[in-house]
Design goal:
- With 284 residues, the chain is mainly α.
- It is built from 13 helices and two strands, in the order H-H-H-H-E-E-H-H-H-H-H-H-H-H-H.
- It has helices at 6-24, 35-43, 50-61, 66-87, 104-108, 110-129, 137-151, 156-166, 173-183, 185-198, 203-228, 235-254, 261-278, and strands at residues 97-98, 101-102.
- A two-stranded antiparallel sheet has the order 1-2.
- Helix 10 (185-198) packs antiparallel against helix 11.
- The longest helix is centred in the C-terminal third of the chain and has 26 residues, at 203-228.
- The radius of gyration is 18 Å and the shape is globular.
- The two termini are 29 Å apart.
- The model has no long low-confidence stretch (mean pLDDT 95).
């Protein structure tokens, strides 16, 4: 049996997502306040596209296709992009560069950045609600609800509020994981759920892949903290938790057999990333 090549897998799926995003983001000369231009700028800056990768890998694990997952994958990436536009604002993190380029509020202005983020959020739900080939209307509706929950006050937005309140002064692993589960884990949980729903999976499979996404997302953020030297007082505990969370991810993915090979590889990737960072290897 040929060994699974995660890098090749991700390169292929990212290309498919980027091509779909080019089609789904608005274009045209009728562009009030350069909003369309700003939307494309913010989404097409680059990045690992990890959240769309989870949508696709979860869909494939549940027996679905890349084509069925693309709309949900792009919708989730638009939500992520909107959150970064707003996070970079002076009222939040006041970041001036992202991926080597001026952040949206630097390139387009503060007020326009707020509106560009708003427009991306609206567009994401338009894309998701329009559905995808083979996905039942009921599952499209359920996907809209899951994305709304995970991106709102009980998910990403709530996590951002907690992060603002606590910042780098967290000395409890339980509190840190509460922040991580909402701010980062929620969109990965949405990715697992949206992927499963795109495959018309059973209710139990949707729940399990949603849980897989949440655990992966928390592990991913722990790895990022180690990589960025954040939350230093909890570094050892966080590394142990990454191992535990990855083991739990593998157990959840195990029921999907060979279809879940990408999920297993992604879990190994985040574990390797955390341990490399802890050893001083600052890999992306």
């Amino acid at each position: 049996m040929t060994a699974f090549d995660l890098n090749s897998y991700l390169a292929d799926r990212r290309k498919r997502v980027d091509e779909a995003l080019l089609q789904l983001l608005p274009t045209g000369t009728d562009d009030p306040g350069r909003l369309k231009e700003g939307m494309r700028y913010s989404v097409l800056l680059g990045g690992k596209r990890m959240r769309p990768m989870i949508v696709i890998a979860a869909c494939e694990a549940a027996g679905g296709t890349v084509e069925a997952a693309l709309a949900a994958a792009c919708a989730l990436e638009m939500v992520h992009a909107y959150s970064l536009v707003h996070d970079d604002l002076p009222a939040m993190d006041n970041d001036l560069e992202r991926r080597g380029k001026p952040t949206v509020h630097v390139a387009f202005g503060h007020a326009q950045a707020i509106l560009i983020g708003d427009a991306l959020l609206s567009r994401s739900f338009e894309v998701l609600a329009n559905g995808a080939p083979g996905v039942t209307p009921d599952n499209v509706s359920r996907a809209v609800v899951r994305l709304a929950i995970h991106s709102g006050v009980d998910g990403m937005v709530g996590g951002q509020a907690l992060d603002i309140a606590h910042g780098q002064d967290i000395h409890s692993l339980a509190l840190l994981e509460r922040v991580h589960s909402l701010k980062t884990g929620a969109l990965y949980a949405a990715g697992g759920a949206l992927g499963a729903l795109s495959a018309n999976a059973s209710t139990a499979q949707v729940r399990d892949l949603e849980t897989w996404g949440l655990k992966f997302g928390i592990a991913f953020q722990h790895a990022d903290d180690i990589l960025d030297d954040d939350q230093k007082s909890l570094r050892g505990e966080a590394l142990t938790r990454v191992d535990q969370l990855v083991s739990e991810c593998d157990a959840l993915a195990g029921q999907f057999g060979d279809h879940a090979v990408a999920l297993h590889a992604l879990a190994r990737w985040v574990k390797d990333r955390a341990h490399a960072a802890a050893a001083g290897v600052k890999a992306d």
